Amino acid sequence: MNLFKDLADLLYPVTCPGCGRVMDRDIVWCSSCLTKIWNPRLINSSRTEHLQGCYTLCSYEGAVRNCIIEVKYGGRADRKQVFYPLLARFPYWDRLSAFHLVIPVPLSKKKKEARGYNQVDLMFEDWMKEQGKTYLPQGLVRFRSAETQSLLSRRERYENIRGVFHINKNLDIKGKSILIADDVYTTGATMEAAAHELMRAGAKTVMGITIASGAM
Ligand SMILES: [Zn+2]
Question: pTM of the full predicted structure?
Fold first, then answer.
């Protein structure tokens, strides 16, 4: 309803995460700040043993990096509004039309309770549902966190995360094409571990999508 939207804009103006300019809430990013981070692509060498590949929307830098960090570590669940317009602009959805099931990379139970939410749900769930996809927040379960991951080498990351993810035992994904959603793609170790478990459980194919990546 327009009246409600106008009132919301007046009371809680939406500002560009890069420069603070007041923006329409459907757009959020001003074009100059968007240009600095916008880099939609299939990440080079993101195809691994069990993952077909991984798409991403932005370079992991500047304002989008700040927003991701605020949602993850700063309790800023309200920041979810900056991600929706990015997903709406992503130009390669047609390449992912066969993927009807979307499963987020989960947090461990302990970490999710501490944070109050999985930031990946805040970023992707509304958008995916509006596109008619089935979003399964509990599709994968994480048995332990891998918090020290950032200190490890690429190979150590793959070792460290192996066996962390388990399919929800009530879920049958045999023959399904599945999209794994995550906030950031770094080495691909997390995506590969999640894809490995989904393929083991009978998925037909697994592809990834993230908001941002520092990888090429
Ligand atoms: Zn701006």
Answer: 0.92
